[in-house]
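2 proteins. here.
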Amino acid sequence: MKRLVKTVISFLMIFAFACAPAATGANTDSTAEATEAAAVTATPAPTTEPAPEPLGMAPIDLLGKGYNLFFDVVFPAGYTVYGAFFDSAQPKKGRNDLFALNLTAEGDRLEITRYCAELLGVTDEAMLAAYADAMTNDGYADITGTYAGKTAYAWLKQTDAGYESDQITDVEGCRIELAVDVTSEQAEQYRALVLANYSTAMLGDFADRFGEDTIRRDMLSIFVNVQKPDKTEVYVSHEVKDAVALLTEMTGTLQTSWYDEDTASFGLDYAMQRVKYSFDKENNIANVALSPNNNSAPAGKFKKSAVSFTSLGFTSYPNDGLCIYKEDQNHLEIAIAKPGWGHVEDWNFEFLGESNGCSLYMVYAEATGLFHIAVNKGDEGASAEYIVAENAFASDVYPDEETQKRLFSEAAGITEGDYRAAVFALFTDLVQDRFGMTWQELYALPIW
């Protein structure tokens, strides 16, 4: 637009002076200079490149853009990514720092082998035939090629459907590992991700012995499993002054979950996190494998809350998306299933109990804001709906008002008054007595 405006102005000035009476020489020269200056195109302002998006620091981000070097690959149908890892260089094995993607591939194994080879730039028919022969005769194939200008590898293993391995449920086809060497700059990004998911919070006073200055940055790795988050692990090694003495001191002080003297290793549990420490006595190295058990948040930031479901006696069932509190002797059970936990049912707070020979069932759904309250005795049952936002009961009655009043009054142990509120109070009072808080405050707690 600036160029267009300048051009129009220049044209109008030239046109005006062409039609004007003749001027003196001095004026003519100055007019020509002004016209020439106006015709000069303005130099565009320098543009700056947009700042790159910051990389995420949760384990699952390893599969996203910025870390996943195969992010833009559209794999054929039947290919499923189940994990990824960054592995520090292993000079003894002739391996550089690398990123790898883990997949299962369902289908014809020879077609899968050819696809992986071609993905890594292998087009020579003799080489393709050799890889196919290896898959046919040996059940696996090791492919070397290039990807994005760097040395890349594909390791394929024949699999059968339904076999439950430690890391994955196999398919009829192949298990694949696609790997590519990374640059030193990329390696630093991966190392930052590893350290963001590493914690020494479980060590108490021993944490100072495992400070940042003791970390071997050339020995950092991370593996992320999408289908089995409990298999996600970060690997960190520390240089220590005296591995033998430190091992003895730690196992004699900390509450270990297990200890193996022969392998100089032990385990610690810290809320949802599991940690394995193993000591290289000859080289004074402490190797740590930490399982964060949560792919969605940086494990390094995790700290146990002062008050949580688990601190109050709830048991966490992450695979079911539940936290459950039980008192079998009192026939009491409270279950929490918050949105986002992965629980398949449509309720979020469940209470099961007994009162005066009646069984109580109350269930809250955050989506509707309703508490369904049911009382049963023998073959009879009655229920009501409590609207949380209005602190009132809905007008619906089941099965009829007389039955509802009789059963609710018997459960609450009253002969007059609001029988529905009295039954609901059995729940709210119990929560207050057991946990020292309202049911809403209990529901708002974290798991750990």
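next one coming up
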Amino acid sequence: MRNFLDLTGKVALITGASSGIGAATASVFAGLGARVAIGYHRHADGAEQVRSGITAAGGHAICIQADVRRTAGIRSLVNAAASQLGPIDILVNNAGSLIERMKILEVTEDRWDEIMNLNLKSAVLCSQAVAGSMIERKHGSIVNIVSIAGRNGGGPGAGAYATAKGGLITFTKSLAKELAPHGVRVNAVSPGVIDTPFHEVFSTPEMIRNFVAGIPLGRVGTSMECAQVIAFLASDAASYVVGETIEVNGGQLML
């Protein structure tokens, strides 16, 4: 029986893959047979740890440093991945951060732009950078990592981040309509409260307890639980899934 999750022979580029959901996704993809490019910005040690783990398990991965907030960084990232591994079949736009919790009276123009550039513009420009090759080859999959914040406005002081993620949900649908006729599928995964460095930085233990109180499963999620859904969307198992945003939140938000 065919394994529809098999990614053997595929080349995957994952941004923000030095920790958390991105790191787990890199490991899952490699385990399914993909050759993986681990994109990272500052956390070189984390990226190398992910690569070493994949290599030790018999997989193939490389690390590429880039600032995906800038067009030049994105072009360098995509060109390096393609030259070392081959044309990119799967793009996971995972790079992102809340950066800082701010009330509306605290938001500055520069901070707003920084949050938009990292969480929204980076995904748009990375998608643009790989789309031409995917269209030419008549296949490909792009998975955008959004957030429950893009649906419900986010937690305290997360307005800018929530707005960026809401924009990315909309962009996912728009790009899906544009690329589907060319055999390229675009979808998104929307994590809820996941046990990652994100919440270690931006959420207090009290905030986490309050979040969990509203989750029917009664716990936070794991990076691996998100990565498995991302792998599904990237694979032939989701060959007729287009323009969807899958919620991975333990029932915290049901649409």
